[in-house]
Design brief:
By secondary structure, the protein is of the alpha+beta class. It has 2 domains: 1-39; 42-241, no CATH class. Helices cover 31% and strands 29% of the residues. It is built from 5 helices and 10 strands; from the N terminus they run H-H-H-E-E-E-H-E-E-E-E-E-E-E-H. The strands form 3 sheets. It has a 4-stranded antiparallel sheet. It has a 4-stranded antiparallel sheet with strand order 5-4-8-9, with no helix packed on it. The protein is globular.
């Protein structure tokens, strides 16, 4: 009789363990699926923003309306800002003299901000915490590329966003930023996104986080305009015609 009871208890324990293992696996899968779903950029933030410069270029019959980008690191990798900031989309529009980017950070970035600056309280996740600018570097001595580490031979041009669109999704904050009057030419060495804490903006000092979005030795990839991009462009064109 005791043997039967032990066997029954063992079977019950085995069943409970199996249920716990199955529940754990299901929970992990749900967490992974949720994380993947929450980390994807909102469609609205990935849609091209259309302003006067974009529309003028789109409607110009003489110059093809095209975009390109490069495959660069999408997340900050420096020791000081590792994983803090991402640029998840870059669209360079030569005929519009324009660059558009999607800038992203999450809640843990704000925790790091509090620690890095020794703030008494953690800033609100809903605040506009960061100053984001675009910096182009131009070679002043293109005949001698060997001196490009010399600050005297490099020209820096900083651009400020003319348009900003905000979105929030789960643990992420998003900003779509438009930079106008930007020309990436054969003398442009690189283009960088600089991020500063908005209460400590010192452009003469190194940025809190920096991401390269263009360098003259990397391959250019054709940007394929999405259906939402084309809908936005055509809606702006229709409105302009009225």
């Amino acid at each position: 009789m005791a043997t039967v009871r032990k066997s029954l208890a063992f079977r019950r324990l085995s069943t409970i363990l199996k249920i716990m293992i199955v529940a754990f696996v299901i929970g992990v899968n749900i967490l992974i699926i949720w994380r993947m779903a929450s980390s994807g950029d909102p469609k609205e933030i990935r849609t091209l923003m259309v302003n006067d410069a974009t529309l003028k270029a789109y409607l110009d019959p003489e110059v093809p309306f095209e975009g390109y980008y490069q495959e660069q690191n999408t997340i900050t990798r420096t020791k000081e800002a590792y994983g803090y900031f991402s640029v998840t989309q870059v669209v360079i529009l030569p005929s519009a003299h324009q660059v558009q980017i999607v800038f992203r950070y999450n809640r843990s970035t704000v925790k790091h901000l509090q620690q890095d600056y020794g703030l008494e309280e953690m800033p609100s996740f809903d605040e506009d915490l960061y100053d984001v600018t675009l910096v182009l570097t131009e070679d002043l001595t293109p005949e001698d590329r060997g001196d490009n580490q010399d600050p005297q031979t490099i020209k820096l041009m900083r651009y400020y966003p003319s348009e900003v669109k905000k979105e929030q999704k789960s643990v992420y904050q998003y900003r779509r930023l438009v930079f106008d009057q930007v020309d990436i030419t054969e003398d442009t060495i690189g283009a960088f996104v600089d991020v500063y804490y908005n209460r400590d903006i010192r452009y003469e000092e190194s940025a809190y986080g920096t991401l390269c979005i263009y360098d003259d030795e990397s391959e250019r990839k054709t940007y394929v305009f999405s259906k939402r991009d084309m809908a936005a462009l055509n809606a702006a064109a229709d409105q302009n015609a009225d």
